Amino acid sequence: MSLVYRAIWQDNLDSVCTTAADVFRSWANGKKRVPDAIPDSGTIHSTVINGTDRVDIEVQTEGATSDFGAVTDAFRAQLVETRPKGQRWHTTVRSWQEAPSGESAAGPAWLWVDVEVVGDVDIRSLAPKAPILARDLLLAGSNPRIGDERLLTRADFVHGAAAGEHLAEELSHFDRSIPFVVLHKNFGAEQRMPANVNFDQVVRTTANAVAGIANVVCVDGAAAHALTEALTESHGLWGGALRIYQKDLDPASPSDSWRHRYVTADRYLTNRSTAADIAGRTIGPISSVRRPPPSFANAKALLNQQNTGSATYAELLEYADTQLQAAEENNAALLDQLRQADEDAQAQALDLDEALEDRLRALDQAEKLTRKVDYLEKQLAELGGSSAFAVGAGPMLPDTASNLSHAVQLAQEHLADRLVIPGEALRDLPVLDSTNTAGAWGNLSWLAFRALHAFADDCANGWDRGGFYEWCGNSKHPLVWRASTKKLAMKESDTVHQSDKLKQCRVLPVATDVDPSGSIFMEAHIKIATGGGNLAPRIYFHFHNPTCTMHVGFFGPHKYMPNSKT
């Protein structure tokens, strides 16, 4: 079982368990239209048909009270959805009230929401988001907080320099434990947004996604400037950017800035959910390690006593077996996550080694070209010529792409004469755009598209010494892609060729002038990254020799192109 979302907070509610039970019932009935009344304590089962999909639902609730002890009330409820292909999603709420102390009418109140998943789900492709249940509990509360820190129930809008300075103080406080997502509202950035997206939607969607685990704040220009002045440029934000401020922010240490992720406006304002996905992917894994307060042990004991107080020996054994099975499933999930993390780390190390090799080759080439330019300038000076360089009349292409969607946009705008990228070839780009590596993958994808276009252009101008792999290895063109089996494959494995199922995944769209059916089997592909697991991007392509055009049949995560290793 993999933990996707966890939020634990304190509140001032006098009857937190009653509130939690009421909110849970309302959420469960509204979410899946559970036909049976949800009991105060017990289990019900239901089935919901969603189109052609069947979803089996189990709702469990239990509560306990005590006139003595450290905890007076405890409540636990769980909604389990078993979806097609055996995926099980568990949403659990726990609440408990500590015994009052002194003259207080009620003791401290606690709420805890978990979302877990079991089954065939690629955890790395998920962008953790708060369930509506968590948001409803926050809104029903009275002063939700973590320690002494406020936990916002909605996005906060900060205006003016004084408010920006106050926010900077809050962000840099050494005891802060709640992450902050700060978005700069910038007129110029908003003007470049698509017509179907507006900035307020982006802010609301982000606040909903991280409810219970982070605070979302929107700052205007004056507040952003004051915040940047207070935190220094290394930790500030401007130009419509988004920044995720983790705890332990140290403005005096510029080298600390990398921990507080900075996302430029062009990377997240293209879609209303991209900022939410980025925030969820960044903060979700951190929130999952949060631990409950010591009083939870008393709450758990109170509920367990309720369950086992009058149980028979056989029922106690069954209860113990259930607990052991849950622990074993959790351990297996953790081991699987550890294995995946280790594989990713090794693959990213390979990517880094290759990047360093590319950099050394680029530096060597730059040094040779510099010497050649110096030599030619001297010759030109001896002949009495001008040392000024003529500027070419051709258009200058952008050097970088902000993410993978931007790379496609640039390719369609600037390379369409030789490079064809149909809409149906694009898979899950919004998901890839929200990953931590979206910027690097976007730049590499743009370089890959330029390499494919340059090859087609060279072929139109007479290149006849082999295909794309040979061109990359031998042409010495400045835009070649790395001719390495780790970065480029012109054929698939024998396993793929011998499996109709695996081959069918590679029957991809092309223009009808390439094939009247509109699709062909493609196996040549560029590997944008080695690391990244099933999300690592791939570009499948086909060169049409009669028209000297390159056709992209697939651009998306590796998981859609299974092979013998997946």
End-to-end Cα distance: 20 Å
The helical percent reads: 25-40%
Query: What structural class do you assign from the helix and strand content?
Result: alpha+beta
- Strands of the largest sheet, in order across it? 1-6-5-4-3-2
Radius of gyration: 29 Å
Large-scale geometry = globular
Give the total of beta strands: 20
Strand content: 15-25%
Q: Stretches where pLDDT falls below 50 for ≥5 residues?
A: none
By DSSP (H or I, 4+ residues per run), the number of helices equals: 16
For the largest beta-sheet, the strand count, sense and barrel status come to: 6 strands, antiparallel
Tally of discrete structural domains: 3
Mean pLDDT: 87
Structural write-up:
- With 566 residues, this protein is an alpha+beta fold.
- The chain has three domains: 1-146 and 288-306, Alpha-D-Glucose-1,6-Bisphosphate, Chain A, domain 4 (2-Layer Sandwich); 150-272, 3-Layer(aba) Sandwich (Glutaredoxin), CATH 3.40.30.10; 395-560, no CATH class.
- Helices cover 39% and strands 21% of the residues.
- It is built from 16 helices and 20 strands.
- It has helices spanning 16-32, 132-140, 161-172, 187-191, 199-209, 221-231, 265-268, 274-287, 296-308, 313-382, 404-414, 429-433, 438-460, 468-474, 494-497, 500-504, and strands at residues 2-11, 42-50, 53-65, 71-82, 88-98, 109-118, 145-146, 149-150, 156-158, 180-184, 215-219, 242-245, 262-263, 419-420, 488-489, 507-509, 519-521, 525-527, 537-544, 549-557.
- The strands form five sheets. The chain has a six-stranded antiparallel sheet with strand order 1-6-5-4-3-2, sandwiched between helices. The protein has a five-stranded mixed sheet with strand order 9-11-10-12-13, sandwiched between helices.
- α11 (404-414) runs parallel beside α13.
- The longest helix is centred in the middle third of the chain and has 70 residues, at 313-382.
- It starts with a strand and ends in a 9-residue tail after the last strand.
- The mean pLDDT is 87.
